[in-house]
Design goal:
9-stranded parallel beta sheet; 43% helix; TIM Barrel; 276 residues
């Protein structure tokens, strides 16, 4: 049986205009055991000036591990989402993200198929995705890192679509990063879907969806950047935890919300469920 722990995606400090290290400290202060930092390529103004939480893959990977060690928190994964349908972007991006993860100590690199090119067919997109995933998997296998494929875009919005992407490459490095909110908004039953992927799941995005967002967007979108505070939306978190406890691997519920206040409320709600 898997152990279930609480973590948080660093998106929760996106609007606070602070550094990566500030966000790590804040997550630890709330009480989270794990964090999921976001990576980017190259250099850009906001994070370089200390106004954004994302970390460049041109930085020393030890920047992440040192910050986590300083504040007594661990890494559940790295968010390295890049469009798998566009290998000219994603192949080298994901390979570098895997090497970065191995050096800083993150066990999972999360991604999804991303927006597709506007000129390719569905068959061509799956060939392109197979190439990208296969190249990244070779690097991940050698380092003991998982690639977490997330339901988030046009092809992974259904269980069958995500399964087709997962099956493109036969590799022990490939797993599922299930997202409860994306699964719900795409019109699926997230608990039924979770049951289908639990044996291959390596990470979980704990995203709740408010009733207002549900009424406005369910069945019309394939996902959303962040959700509301866990426990204040439509997701049955007691059932999510119940299913995760039957997984063969330990699972971190990486909360995806948009504010520090939501992160605090999510933590206290989920912590109480885990204690029960």
């Amino acid at each position: 049986m898997g152990q279930v722990s609480l973590g948080i995606n660093m998106e929760f400090v996106r609007h606070d205009d602070k550094t990566f290290e500030w966000g790590i400290e804040k997550a630890a202060q709330i009480g989270y055991e794990y964090v999921e930092p976001m990576l980017h390529w190259g250099r850009e103004l906001l994070s370089e000036a200390g106004y954004f939480h994302s970390v460049s893959m041109l930085d020393d990977p030890y920047r992440i591990s040192r910050a986590c060690e300083k504040y007594g928190i661990k890494l559940s994964a790295l968010s390295a989402h890049s469009p798998l349908c566009k290998p000219e972007i994603s192949t080298e991006y994901l390979k570098q993200a895997v090497r970065f993860a191995a050096e800083c100590g993150a066990p999972v690199v999360n991604t999804d198929e991303g927006p597709k090119p506007d000129w390719t067919t569905e068959q061509e997109d799956h060939v392109l995705m197979r190439y990208t995933i296969a190249e990244a998997a070779k690097v991940a296998e050698a380092r003991g890192i998982f690639l977490g494929l997330e339901p988030h875009q046009q092809y992974s919005k259904t269980p069958e679509g995500l399964e087709r992407i997962y099956a493109l490459v036969d590799s022990p490095a490939i797993g599922i990063n299930f997202d409860t909110g994306n699964g719900y908004l795409s019109g699926q039953d997230p608990i039924e879907w979770l049951e289908q992927v639990k044996d291959r799941m390596v990470h979980l995005h704990a995203k709740d969806i408010s009733l207002e967002q549900s009424e406005a967007e369910r069945g019309k979108v394939t996902g959303t950047p962040v959700g509301c505070a866990c426990g204040e939306g439509v997701i049955d978190w007691a059932k999510v935890i119940e299913v995760c406890r039957t997984c063969p691997r330990d699972i971190v519920l990486s909360v995806e919300c948009g504010t520090i206040d939501q992160a605090e409320r999510s933590f206290h709600y989920l912590q109480q469920l885990l204690r029960n």
